[in-house]
Input
Amino acid sequence: MKYVIYALSILTLISCKETVDSESSNEVNVTHEVNVTQIEVVEDQIPTPQLTLEQANNLAQLPLHCIEDEYPNKMGHVTASPEDQKRPSVQHPVFYGCFDWHSAVHGYWSAVTLLKQFPELEAREELLQKIQRNLTADNIKVEIAYLNTKDNKTFERTYGWAWLLKLQQELDTWDSIEGKEIAQILQPLTDVIAQRYVDYLPKLNYAIRVGEHSNTAFGMAFAYDYAVHAQNEDLKSAIISKAKEFYSNDASCPISWEPSGYDFLSSCLEEIDIMRRVLTAEEFHAWVKEFLPGIENGKLDIEIGKVSDRSDGKLVHIDGLNLSRAWVLYGLAAQYPEYSNLNEIADAHITNTLPNLVADDYAGGHWLGSFAIYALQNASNAE
Output
């Protein structure tokens, strides 16, 4: 990545002395003292990636081949009795595929997003049939009953919750007969999750700042978008209150410590993602300048994450980190164009990572497509 330095000079005139040389023409010698503020601007060398039909057809293969793929499966289930041991498709008749519950949820989100954006998608009919076969009113009742069991009320808090709300929002905005029908079917489960957020957030005394599933800022960012979309004022107020409580006084985030070995979220950038939503423009610009010094001048010193073994389900998380970093930076630039210098950093992250996703090992293939699609969505908004 090539950086170009532009100097913005604030000129203060200290003295101006004219000297007349009798042996030559008049000359004016002017002495200036220059106070230079440097703004680091990234030269736009990498085209911002766009989601094309060809890419969509490739990415559609990931949810197509995983939302009904029951095994292998990581249940994340608290067993209350021997009778409580059930196969995934019985325990979760909607979200039993894609290795785990939350990946199944954003597998459906990927499918719906691609169907909406690309009516000519090659796998359109097959994807739609799989969604309608599994996402039924009776199956949603089973999913709700599971969340109401004594030992699993905190199931998928808050990562899976966040993606469930994102799925509902995508369905609600799908202008089609199928979209309206499926959105209505999913809504009762969504209402349960939204209320879980409202009940949970006031009890959480400390932010969770890890780079994995339980990151509080990530969970609140997606939930905030749904709250605005659904005009759910209780949910919106709970998120605004807790985000300000947790993050308003944060400064000098140690982004040089990132990534940890298993991160798929940036602890620092996820804070920016929620705070740009809940603060006014004036509040946000003042806050981010203290939170990540230099970012207001287009400077963000991060390296693209490297993956050593994409067959390792934990190590491949770093591909997800590259994509989630990209969507945060694109989202910031789309909301506040003065940060558009950061788009080149996002472009580098997503361009480096996209080739690794299609025909990927199942360790990453069951979820990384969703991250790529969401990053590409944000890329198009930032252009």
